[in-house]
Fold these 2 entries.
Entry 1:
Amino acid sequence: MDAETGIGASVLRKEDARFITGKGQYTDDISVFGQTHCVFVRSPHARAKINSINTDPAMAVDGVIRVFTGDELVEDGIGDLPCGWVVNSKDGSPMVSPPHPPIATTVVNYVGEPYAFVVAETLQAARDGAEAVEADFDILEAVVDTATASSSTQIHENAPNNQAYDWELGDKEATDAAFENADHVTELDITNNRLIPNAIEPRAALGSYDAASSTYTLYTTSQNPHVERVVLALFVNVAPEANLRVISPDVGGGFGSKIFVYAEETAVIWASAKVGRPIKWRADRSESFLADAHGRDHVTKAQLALSSDGEMLGLRVKTIANMGAYLSTFSSSVPTYLYGTLMAGQYKTPAIYVETQAVFTNTSPVDAYRGAGRPEATYVVERIVETAARELNMDPVELRRKNFIPPDAFPYQTPVALEYDTGNYAASMSKALELADSDGYAARKAASEANGKLRGIGYSCYIEACGIAPSQLVISLGAGVGLFESAEVRVDVSGSVSVMTGSHSHGQGHETTFAQLVSDRLGIPFDSVNVIHGDTGRSDYGLGTYGSRSIAVGGSAIDKALDKIIAKGKKIAAHMFETTEDKVNFAEGQFSYEGSNEPKPFAEIAGAAYIPAVYPLDELEPGLSEKAFYDPKNFTYPAGSYVCEVEIDPSTGVTEIQKFVAVDDFGNVINPMIVEGQVHGGLAQGIGQALLEHGIYDADGNLSTGSYMDYTMPRAADLPDFEVDMTSTPCTHNPLGVKGCGEAGAIGSPAAVMNAITDALGVKDVPMPATPHTVWETIQQGA
Amino acid sequence: MKVDLTVNGSQHAVDVADNALLSDVLRETLGLTGTHVGCDTSQCGACTVHLNGSSVKACTVLAGQADGGDITTIEGIANGDDLHPMQVAFRANHALQCGFCTPGMIMSAIDLVQSADEPLGADEVREGLEGNFCRCTGYHNIVKAVLDAQANM
Amino acid sequence: MEERGEFVIPAHPQEVWDALQKPDVLKECIDGCEEMTLTEEGMFACVVAIKVGPVKARFTGTVKIEDPNPPHSYFLDVSARGGAAGFGSGRAEVTLTEVAEGTRLNYEVQGTIGGKLAQIGTRLIQSFSRKMTRTFFDRFSRRWVG
């Protein structure tokens, strides 16, 4: 292997060459001949009955080509936007998923829900047209608040108590018994604030229809173009799957929000055939705030049962999860199978019982956002563990160490369904404490106090289940799709390699990481590997990128395809060596045979594969191109220890993060530079959640934080330098021993920050985000 | 209205609407799609370009206001294959992930370094980039890159 | 959104009452009012251009006087639409009380706003409406002073 480009090397990214020169091709950068522009007409009301929509004044606007309402889509057989994961309630009944037409027809249920769209020659004309559409609404009472939604006015006819489902996991009786035997019970009521993902590239779509071939091409900002295609074909009925090509070109960040199948691309691709011209749409930012799925928004009551010496005996968690107005694509799985299953954390807690009531409100749909369920779970576990330590007058580090699942206990079956394959939590903790200079904390705290400041330290030891995931397991739990990944490794005649992957890169650097994997295994130059992704016309299938699954699942699929390439290469080489394939070795790019002193480089075998002179064609097909589908046996379980140190100015309530240490165990790492970058980004979003970000609706259901003037995005000066390091227990069930790193930072960090803030203030809880105002008020209340 | 713009050294006489934004003219009329638009309230900075040597948010400048101006976009800072030190530093320090904020970030960073009287420290870089959002990197490597580039500018 | 306040106007309640019914007086006193017409008894149609922070729009609306009890009290039902900028509606109770300096006018408004105005301008709307009200009564009172 090449030490500079192989597995484990911090290779600089291939894709950067275009991004730093402005040559990236994002959806809105692509224009096609004859393209028209589209603007959506969105509900200004949180909940209203649509009496009538008058599109005539819009049609009269110069440049407007067509105005569509939801009825036209319905008449054309366009289906509802589906939720792809059926979660059952405690009583076995399936969740309630209210009808969700892409374009509203009879009712609107959140501010921003589209009820018409205008196609025009120019964007300006489309905007003018959208403004001219007249609608008559009966405004209805809106439901906004998560905690009281189930006792409020019923929104959907088929959802009594505004409930989507009431789900449970774990052994209730065993948990009750654990509480009966407990010496101490720690209780914590916490909320997980609603977040708005805010990838810096707004969502966009460019749809066109070719009448000559009856095919549709959709360029869109999707994290999973194949899933987009199958949903649009199979559920929404836009076109037969074979006639639909979905391309996700460069995508400017996703963080979950670009997984889902939304109204806009559905409308654009459908209407392109009606109009007979390509249609482009790009969200304005204030539109993104309303129209992108939001994240988090939980209200939780948690109880932890302990023995007097700090042994964790049982955990009870009862959560109300706000789903927004409709069930978005994967929303149902987030506060259930991606949440309740993580309640064991890194601990041996023997009895756990989790209940989640999912409720509808007249707000934007809530779905997966970086971490998806796992940040919420970590927040519950790590906040209550820290609180318990304080109540028991124990060092929070010691309490955690006492309860860690020990390294020799793996594979470890938790009481909440998951089987962790490997881990060494104490190792990460020790490394984190060392980096955080925990021994010097007392002196730093004293120095802060001398300056009239409050100092606090907080820990968070997260675990997550990612590398999503084994198909048969998730299908048995209600998922409507498999969660394998596909890969094709196409060796060219000259020995260069094209890799088609079903994973999609929107910042993760797959073009580099996957090329490292291929060049390392085939022993060929890094630069002769070209990674292709994001186009249903070029790769067979794919489930896309989310749940930190690209390397663990997509990378393993590539690895499997490489096995096949090497196996076929050996067969070809065997004929060239005039021996049998079992006598051929492949290492460092050379096929060798002990009976020959002339090993054959990979490129020579590639050439021979396409110029089939020496091998019998009835035994071996020409060519060297292999496909593989990889379905993992289990999730992967990245885990880590985070330490946060804050200093608070009591006169202003301003919190400054003075130190943030993250030590993660991602198993084997292909490109440490990229992995560290992923951690940095996750930390920024987690710290943003803890200190700054909050999606707020007013009582009427208007999104008060609907622009960057009111939704506080973390800026450079809001964040500290991060100290990031790693430990490694390789994953035991995938061929690369990798785990996945995309979400860890966002999962582990909020609890660390809030544990530090509550430590500094000497209070049990401060609601997120801990803005200066909130912190200042907390201080005043205590004074 | 007719507007004369010098963009990346080339002269353009373009006919634009009175309300046309510089960002739209760069992207739509001149095809310079490296200048990105990430918001509608002049906060995200993805559209940052240089107008007469200073960074401006192109989504907040009317094309008419730039009449006669000398504009540099991300496409214009390299000298052929010779990348600008800021571009080199961004790649070398992994200061970008999805790449969408990158052009604006680089243009802001160049102006920040060029207009500083003395070498900037990390805190000053953080303060100086307050007009540019990045959602991917947590800014950690961006700060490193700017400090790194500063030494070579 | 709720708002209440009072102003003292240097005129007799009946004079205040009469003036408040006149479209031209209302037009003159409402900042940004471009049109104000009496469409039927107790019913006005109006066009008002406003700017709240970054949201700038021309609102068309109706104002309806309900339960008039001259010259003591009435209710105002207001609804206005500003296209893409949003909409507003509200109900105000206005009472006039004779005091030594003239008339004390009390008002109590309950209103809602929506659309872009609510999304972008919500932080500013309270101070905006206070300023708008103050401007109205400043101009209105000036009819009787100097």
Note: The mean pLDDT of chain B is 97.
Entry 2:
Amino acid sequence: MPTTAPPAHALSDVTASDGTLRRFLHGLPGVDAVGLEARAASLGTRSIKTTAKAYAIDLAISMVDLTTLEGADTPGKVRALGAKAVRPDPTDRTAPATAAVCVYPDMVATAREAVAGSGVKVASVATAFPAGRAPIAVKLADVREAVSAGADEIDMVIDRGAFLAGNYLKVYEEIVAVKEACGTSARLKVIFETGELSTYDNIRRASWLGMLAGADFIKTSTGKVAVNATPANTLLMLEAVRDFRAQTGVQVGVKPAGGIRTSKDAIKFLVLVNETAGEDWLDNHWFRFGASSLLNDLLMQRQKLATGRYSGPDYVTVD
Amino acid sequence: MSDRLNVLKTYKLYVGGKFPRSESGRVYEVTDSKNRWLANAPLSSRKDARDAVVAARKAFGGWSGATAYNRGQILYRVAEMLEGRRDQYVREVAEAEGLSKSKAAEQVDAAIDRWVWYAGWTDKIAQVVGGGNPVAGPYFNLSSPEPTGVVAVLAPQESSFLGLVSVVAPVIATGNTAVVVASEESPLPALSLGEVLATSDLPGGVVNILSGRTAEIAAPLAAHQDVNAIDLAGADEALARELEIAAADNLKRVLRPQPVDDWSATPGTDRMTAFLETKTVWHPTGSLGASGSAY
């Protein structure tokens, strides 16, 4: 049968209808939960020391999406965060800048100004973050506002209600619409809120759904629920992006967010990335940490490595 | 004859209200004064010291913010718990220091009395070293003692229990939190003290007890940027000098080792005031007229 246009990728036909999408997602192999958690735990026992640790800490700092998503955010707080993202350790100019600052849409302009000319990106959550319970028109308006205010990256939340109800096509179409609203200037991160998806099978399905819909990044969580990024769910998503690239040639980034607070945790995640997705993802274009307090711990560890003395919270900013 | 097996105690560290083994997994043999094996004690590493400082820092806000009266009650409770374990401490001190049972009992009694004495000081030290200052203006000017923060305490090497209590109690009585390095040769009374502290309402992390080589644990503590003061009671002259140099880096308060012939002598308030800072505030209101406030 002749086709008018070549398929975008090998999987283009699975999104033709709700039925084909469901068949595809439910046809994904089931997740061996015990095996997954054991694998994540065993990779977490790698010992990363001295020069490798220094490399990992600098890499992790460069991957941080420095985040403030509070109702109490003020322009002053966002400016302070921007300054910290550009120069995390003012006493040591060799410390790399973070990847981005992540704020609410109404703070994008302020953040843009604070990081201007530094190469630090501005990410904005959108689509009625964190619940995602708003009409699609409102969600798209939210996205367009953020993009026009200068956001380089949009962190959207999926409609978990629709996903859990099995309405996969609705979720898919929403992501496609948001991707379109992002235009060519903004990269799209899709948040699944893994803590609300109940099962590892659902996380695998959501990952594939997001990637099929054109996500540039898949992200674990909003940081607003009890269970956020864990080594196991991040490992599962890393496997998904690896398999997706193998099948389609399209590379998608991963962003664990929420609950990663120590350098030790961050380094464990980097080990997962290297061992699962591979070195191609060890770059802040393809892997990010959504975090706020993590950066201070990374800086304290960095100071410890540089001076040989343990540092303390008096030597990093309070935020 | 009974053929019951001995239940030997595994001595562990006391950090953040818990009883962990050393992160390094190491232990060393503790012997009595006649070189007979008593127990294995954890041989702490610098990472144990680091964890202890984190625990002490976390506990500082709550402990320094507790009312002096409440701190006094809790410290008195510690003394009550010590009293209940008196026989155990008498045995441990006798073995550790090679004392007769009656001499060891004297040491333990003096230590418990010392603890009660410091418990009484918690809500009195402010009146002694603080107060209203007369100034040349119509203001109030007040000085009050404030705890320094996290204090690293190298416990005396010889006096394993009375000496230990004499250096730990004054540090926490005023609201500091402590990381204590037990006597290297006889750490067992100190490690047992952790069990008493854990059961006396003292918040976890206020006192953290490490055992091992004093020089090995003290070096990272002296250089640690998040330790505010260090008591060098258990360091010899060469080590004290080295630690004082390291401590100067973040302007730690340093209490140099002082010769103590008799730990049972009345200690005075010096060990408390060594780890206090004085906060002076000008009260920005003028004098009140006969009609009341000037506002």
Note: Strands of chain B lie at 27-31, 37-42, 131-132, 140-147, 150-154, 177-181, 207-210, 229-231, 253-255, 276-283.
